[in-house]
């Protein structure tokens, strides 16, 4: 895309820079005519949208490569390298055409059988059972698969199913020796096991809760925030107020190998590829069909248990057949393509891109964007239009009007799309090695783990886009599969605005960082109560402590002080409103950290950087900042040790000394102090659990080592001197 930017003449770039929404059709037409005259543009479209049969495909099926991976997987299986064998079989399944045959057997069915055998060997019977069933859906007359499924059902205790599967395998087995072996298996089942009711091997379904009927929301318009949602009646804390499926959603690139491309949940070991291309991976056949539509159920699978009543959203169908652009273009551009295709299919017209603003009802941000971003949107809109013309509908007109509609859509996605997140816990890997370590606790050395939100997808939710932002939100967004759910975090009175956080929140970011993020990403200046009123969190989150050891006041640097000066007012009462985030500060109030900065009427706030806001003592920022910077370096080493799971204690003493230094310089409620204290605890837990595991496995060798007691003693000494860390 950079090459296309470079060939745009300055005259057109100036038009882009000065353009508004009304200028888009003519401007898009001019850029379209320019690109049509460029050979490099046609080469780009050829690479993005051409069929894989005409070139070395990135996302197409490849029978030869699948056979090579199958052979390599067999070799790894024989040598005992099960993890590598699993990778080979799964990658071969992505590349194998559904109608390919090898040695008289369907290649995909054979690969599922091989992977099922591997799962059975690895002690994963449920995964093995599912792969056997997938193989039988493709090749129902494959005796080896019936035999394998019978063995797996016996492992699971499903003896009726096991007898049935082994009986079918015996009837299909052509060799006399094979039939006798299966008969012996059946005799063993009859002698040693009583028949039991078969247990269905179905995956757990996600039940989305319903919004209570008494919850009534209303869309209103205000002069400062525009459209927004309010509650018509009082809503209790923790109430579900909204649930919504996405209008369109796409997985983010960095999660393509780890999460399902439809439901966005973490992938199991027995992944399922797309039938027609090698890009998506799914967690189940349900997601595979939902993503590709009924067209993705081939004739070879007519005997399967797919339900024709399944409501399919074929969001991947136009991206399929191995074309490259869904893998190469940015996620928001691929999302725009899904929105365009869905809207055109709903309207039943495929010649022009419809007016998406009327369909979606979303606000746009084009006029507020930088010239560089505007030009980028124009280029991507034209490229996407050509890709959809090749992959979706050859009737789709390529003109300035259609391109301008995609420009508007991309600007809407920039400010209205919601990141679909999953919770990830970073728990010590030592716990996974032995079950009893999972439940072990040893005072301060008990399991140290953190939970964080990880972005896995990007989606458009039409109704949820009406909820405005607040850095002190009263509702919280979370996800079940692709479904967005909103719950209240506190009691909300009737008529009050319902506001969620677009990312930054009081207590997590300081005010200047929140304002900068919202202005850069969403093009508005936040005037919520967290950004317009002085609050304790913004004062202490990155503050320094007073040089007077008996003073609890906070000292601000120049950037934070300037931001606080711009806040127009101080809350009427010193303690903040009842927002849950503020309660994390253990009832610290403004007076305790900034008493002299409040005048008697509490109508203004006086801030001088470098001076304590409680006693007025001066702090030398230059020297203190250098010390803090050096201390962070030691903690980065400790963080690297944790990331590499290096339980050597050589990095710990320096980190402990740095933490003590930081405690003497930074305010007690500085966010960095809390994060570094957690890192120290996490590292100590790794060290102690590693040493305890050594005691269990090699007690004599452990007690001969002098390093372990030193490490334990080091942490105990630290605990005695810092009991509240």
Automatic annotation (TrEMBL):
TPR repeats lie at residues 66-99, 143-176. Residues 215-503 form the SET domain. GO terms for molecular function: zinc ion binding. InterPro entries: SET_dom (IPR001214), SET_dom_sf (IPR046341), TPR-like_helical_dom_sf (IPR011990), TPR_rpt (IPR019734), Znf_MYND (IPR002893). This is SET domain-containing protein. It comes from the Eukaryota. It comes from Gossypium raimondii. Keywords: Metal-binding, TPR repeat, Zinc, Zinc-finger. SMART domains: TPR. The lineage of its organism: Eukaryota, Viridiplantae, Streptophyta, Embryophyta, Tracheophyta.
